[in-house]
């Protein structure tokens, strides 16, 4: 009787998921906070709006305006509504016409804000809310001659100014769209300029 030798089957080990989180050096930067979870202390990235609201620099209205502006920007640029974004007024799901109108209105609100606050402040909004650059990276880019703490402080102050500016102007942009209606499609450019002027006039009145 002959015996046959059988080779043991090769065992394949299932690779474990690697921790691709931030490095200790990254979590040591100023845009990370220490939070206690049970008995552990974790370093978590700061949410800009949450941080400014928590410090008392901005209020809940400013946070809401920033989130709405962000939703408008993403909707206009990509045609995608954020999950937590409220359905635009007049938009019927699945209807291409109301979808196009709602997307156009979102883009116009972004443009109205941009015309009033200026190109520089508009870029700050994109850096802070859309691209979500950290205050550390913005500070390093804008004030390379300063120390890291001063860089982050300057970036936070500028972010506060821009978010507060947005809070006031975004509400006026919404009011302008409701107050000034086009009589026909050919009135589009003229209506936009009227709405810009409406926002500027109302802003001047509120400041005075």
What does this structure look like?
There is one protein chain. Helix content is 60%, strand content 6%. The chain has eight helices and two strands. The protein has a two-stranded antiparallel sheet. α3 packs across α4 and α7 (148-179) crosses α8 (188-207). The protein is globular, with a radius of gyration of 25 Å.
Task: Provide a brief overview of the structure.
This protein has 208 residues and is mostly helical. The chain is 60% helix and 6% strand. The protein is globular, with a radius of gyration of 25 Å.
Topology, element by element:
Layout: H1 24-27, E1 32-37, E2 40-45, H2 48-54, H3 60-78, H4 96-117, H5 119-130, H6 135-142, H7 148-179, H8 188-207
The total strand number stands at 2
Figure out the total of helices: 8
Structural class: mainly alpha
Work out the helicity level.
55-70%
| Ends apart, CA distance between termini | 107 Å
- Low-pLDDT sequence parts: none
Order of secondary-structure elements: HEEHHHHHHH
Strand content: 5-15%
Determine Rg (CA atoms, Å): 25 Å
Query: What overall geometry do the principal axes of the alpha carbons give?
Result: globular
Mind describing the biggest β-sheet? 2 strands, antiparallel
Mean pLDDT: 79
- Report strand order across the widest sheet: 1-2
């Amino acid at each position: 009787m002959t015996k046959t030798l059988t080779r043991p089957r090769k065992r394949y080990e299932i690779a474990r998921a690697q921790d691709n989180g931030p490095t200790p050096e990254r979590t040591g930067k100023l845009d990370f906070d220490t939070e206690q979870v049970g008995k552990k202390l974790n370093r978590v990235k700061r949410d800009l709006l949450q941080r400014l609201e928590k410090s008392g620099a901005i209020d809940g209205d400013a946070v809401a305006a920033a989130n709405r502006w962000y939703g408008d920007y993403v909707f206009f640029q990509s045609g995608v509504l954020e999950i937590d974004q409220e359905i635009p007024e007049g938009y019927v799901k699945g209807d291409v016409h109301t979808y196009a109108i709602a997307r156009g209105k979102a883009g116009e609100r972004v443009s109205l804000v941009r015309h009033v606050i200026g190109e520089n402040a508009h870029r700050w909004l994109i850096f802070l809310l859309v691209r979500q650059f950290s205050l550390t990276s913005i500070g390093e880019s804008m004030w390379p001659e300063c120390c890291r703490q001063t860089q982050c402080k300057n970036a936070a102050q500028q972010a506060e100014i821009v978010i507060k500016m947005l809070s006031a102007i975004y509400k006026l942009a919404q009011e302008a769209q409701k107050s000034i209606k086009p009589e026909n499609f050919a009135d589009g450019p003229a209506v936009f300029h009227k709405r810009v002027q409406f926002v500027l006039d109302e802003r001047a009145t509120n400041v005075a």
